[in-house]
Amino acid sequence: MQISILELIDPTKIYKLFRKIRWKKGCYCPSCGSNKLHKRGKHTRHEGCQRYKCLKCHRQFDDLTGTIFSGRHQLVVVWLLYGYFMGLNVSNMQIAKELGLCNSDSQKMGDTLRTEVYTNKPPVRLTNIAEFDEVYIIAGHKGKPKAIQDRKPRRNRLKGARGRGTLATEKPPIFGMIGRDGQVSITMLPDVKQKTIKPLILETVMPGTMIYTDEYNIYSRLQAWGYEHKTVNHSKFEYARDEDGDGFHEVHVNTMEGFWSLLRSWLRPHRGISQEKLPLYLGFFEFVHNVRKRGQALLEPLLSLLLQPKLCPQNAI
User: Fold this and answer.
1) Is residue 81 part of a domain?
2) What CATH number does the domain containing 214 carry?
3) pLDDT band at residue 225 using 50, 70 and 90 as cut-offs
4) How many domains does the chain have?
5) 161 half-sphere exposure, CB direction, 13 A CA radius
6) CA dist., res. 22 & res. 30, Å (int)
7) Is the Cβ–Cβ distance between 23 and 17 less than 8 Å?
8) Which residue, of 71, 89, 104, is where some domain finishes?
9) Range of the domain at 19
10) Is the residue at 144 inside a domain?
11) Rounded to whole angstroms, how far apart are CA atoms 291 and 61?
């Protein structure tokens, strides 16, 4: 379903769009699930928002009840435009300027939307062939002065300590698993060890999958965990290998390494992300990458995710 930007400006069209996405199988009561309803007219505060009364449990609800948009101070059109700009990878500060928001409200709205996507994004399941790799992102405690008041000054990032980092050294590892079909799973870890990556692998990758990695020894037990495993030796300048003689170099981790370039480009406009917020940004980028859509085309899967019923406390945003 293609969503026009004009539909995000007209309140009547917004709620018509919400009903089309949320009630795909017919309207029902969020409390008891009954489809025996009575319409109670439009909402007085939100133009175009339909109100209902359940004839079974006698509770009243509307098009927003149970979603993250319920009980918000900002208009729904502002939230939708915010999500649209997020899909274009615009920074929170720039979105605040475009929508006339204060920076604190913009930050809270961005965190709320990213948290919802991070929490409810579809699980990734990899099979057949997958690649594993890790990358290290500099992430401190941006916006938390108490967390860094006793920390020694950090050296210029271009002259920072080399080698593998950890969460404690403000260089957390991002562990990535990508299938040859393009589906990817990325997770920030406190460190990269066999005990930290094993649960992620067993949850995401089907047994018997062929896994390609570099020669890092944390992958040495993949066969014992039920997977086929082959490596390329980067220390000897081996980046791809043809084992079956068909002229196609199938043993490599170039797909995963290419993905890291996309991730770094995605994070760059945000000019430094704290390690507390980094998982939210990673989760949103994973969702955007896996749905394979951008711009207006991203709105439909994004709204389908955001309109999932969920109890939402009253919020001043």
Assistant:
1) no
2) 3.30.420
3) very high
4) 2
5) 11
6) 11
7) no
8) 71
9) 1-71
10) yes
11) 31
**Secondary structure class of 233 (helix, strand, coil):** coil
Inside any domain, residue 215: yes
**DSSP conformation letters of 66-118:** TSTTTT-SS-HHHHHHHHHHHHTT--HHHHHHHHT--HHHHHHHHHHHHHHHH
In angstroms, the first-to-last Cα distance of the chain is: 29
pLDDT digits (tens, 9 = 90+) for 109-161: 999 999 999 999 999 999 999 999 999 998 877 766 666 656 666 555 544 45
SS3 5: helix
Domain boundary residue, one of 21, 41, 71: 71
Comparison of pLDDT for 237 and 149, the residue scoring more: 237
Distance of CA 205 to the CA centre of its chain: 19
Residue 311 lies in a domain: no
β-bridge mates for residue 54, sequence order: 37
Helices (runs of H) and strands (runs of E) counted in the chain: 8, 8
pTM equals 0.87
